[in-house]
Design goal:
Layout lengths: L11 E6 L5 E3 L3 E10 L5 E8 L7 H15 L5 E5 L4 H10 L3 E5 L5 H16 L7
Parallel strand pairs: 1-5, 5-6
Antiparallel strand pairs: 1-3, 2-3, 3-4
Helix pairs in contact: 1-2
């Protein structure tokens, strides 16, 4: 099982779906939120809202997401973990252009990293997207 203490900051990133259920909007339809996280710190580096019909970030969305991660330390990691079967192809082409190795892993191997972020997002969504003061 992978764990944050196995990594140094910016050594590896994780791309994953943050939401459990689709995010519904009145005007634009339903979306998933794809997040990019640093594996060592579990810091969310960026996110992209992907239409349900697309099922994966577009190349433009993926470039923007990787750029948002790069802006934090002005470098890319050596490794990008993605859950097997989830947007591997769209992530791979953009990541490999930047010298990042994409490593598909079973999603349960990523839970030590992503579970708290998902829980926080779930609680935020249940409040209708409002933060308490």
């Amino acid at each position: 099982m992978l764990h944050p203490n196995q990594f140094q900051v910016n050594e590896a990133w994780i791309a994953f779906q943050l939401n459990d259920v689709p995010i519904e909007t009145i005007e634009d339809g339903s979306f998933n939120c794809v997040a990019l996280m640093d594996a060592a710190s579990c810091f969310i580096l960026g996110n992209a809202f992907v239409p349900i019909a697309a099922q994966a970030p577009s190349p433009t969305e993926m470039r923007r997401l990787l750029k948002s991660g790069w802006e934090h330390r002005r470098e890319y990691p050596g490794t990008l973990f993605v859950p097997k079967g989830q947007f591997e192809a769209s992530v791979s082409s953009e990541a490999t252009r930047r010298g990042i190795s994409v490593v598909p892993v079973e999603e349960d191997q990523l839970l030590a990293f992503i579970a708290e972020a998902r829980q926080g997002f779930r609680e935020f969504a249940q409040k209708g997207g409002r933060r308490e003061a």
